[in-house]
Design a protein that fits this description.
The structure holds 2 protein chains of 2 kinds.
Chain A (H helix, E strand, L loop, with lengths): L8 E5 L4 E6 L9 E6 L6 E6 L4 E2 L4 E4 L5 E6 L8 E7 L13 E6 L1
Parallel strand pairs in A: 1-9
Antiparallel strand pairs in A: 2-7, 3-4, 3-8, 5-6, 6-7, 8-9
Chain B lengths: L3 E4 L2 E4 L5 E7 L5 E7 L5 E7 L6 E2 L10 E5 L2 E6 L8 E11 L5 E6 L3 E5 L1
Parallel strand pairs in B: 2-11
Antiparallel strand pairs in B: 1-3, 3-8, 4-5, 4-9, 5-6, 7-8, 9-10, 9-11
The chains are: A mainly beta, B mainly beta.
Chain lengths: 110, 119
């Protein structure tokens, strides 16, 4: 089973920051948090990952709480092309597999 | 990174028939996986395609229904056998690559998927 819970859907105005939350209260100390997104009719695309420090790349920022039980993906300036389903995934340290949860459907509107 | 090509991209099949989906990667990879995505749902892992040995199936998936081949490190096939309308889904191939530039973790890449409709 997936180790994460996310809101089913969110809206965001174009140009504003999109903050997508994720709960992973059962995460183990050595398990990474990954974020992927799936734009309609495409395969999932890697966004970012982190262990305990905040991370930033050209696509997004990842904020992980100090207790590591939750995290937030931030798209600093959302565009219409960011409309997608966003998956927060904790890689299982026992099986090393990516188990997808239900994800958050982000709708960016003009 | 890795570029994954899946064939066919979509197909409409009669119930009771079988369809073989091909996955070609542009580099040699150790870890290769097959996922299913039912309409409106998230991705579910079907199996790990092992090179040189039998695939490892997840709970709820069996070899007779979803036989997998992995003849080398760049290619795999998934067959959906004796299809029924419940098998209508998107089937995705995925590979994972160790990336020392990304904090020494493995990164997953996905194909565009095969959209299967069974009538």
């Amino acid at each position: 089973d997936a180790k994460t819970t996310q809101p089913t859907s969110m809206d965001c105005a174009e140009g504003r920051a999109a903050n997508l939350p994720c709960n992973h209260s059962t995460i183990s100390g050595n398990e990474y948090v990954y974020w992927y997104r799936q734009i309609h009719s495409q395969g999932p695309q890697y966004i970012i990952h982190g262990l305990k420090n905040n991370e930033t790349n050209e696509m997004a920022s990842l904020i992980i709480t100090e207790d590591r039980k939750s995290s937030t993906l931030i798209l600093p300036h959302a565009t219409l092309r960011d409309t997608a389903v966003y998956y927060c995934i904790v890689r299982d340290s026992n099986t090393d597999k990516l188990i997808f949860g239900t994800g958050t459907r982000l709708q960016v509107f003009p | 990174s890795a570029v994954i090509s899946q064939k066919p991209s979509r197909d409409i099949c009669q119930r009771g028939t079988s369809l073989t989906i091909q996955c070609q990667v542009d580099s040699q990879v150790t870890m290769m996986f097959w996922y299913r995505q039912q309409p409106g749902q998230s991705l579910t892992l079907i199996a790990t395609a092992n090179q040189g040995s039998e695939a490892t199936y997840e709970s709820g998936f069996v070899i007779d229904k979803f036989p997998i081949s992995r003849p080398n490190l760049t290619f795999s096939t998934l067959t959906v056998s004796n299809m029924s309308p419940e098998d209508s889904s998107i089937y995705l191939c995925s590979v994972e690559i160790y990336n020392p530039d990304r904090g020494s973790v493995t990164e997953a890449f996905f194909g565009q998927g095969t959209r299967l409709t069974v009538v």
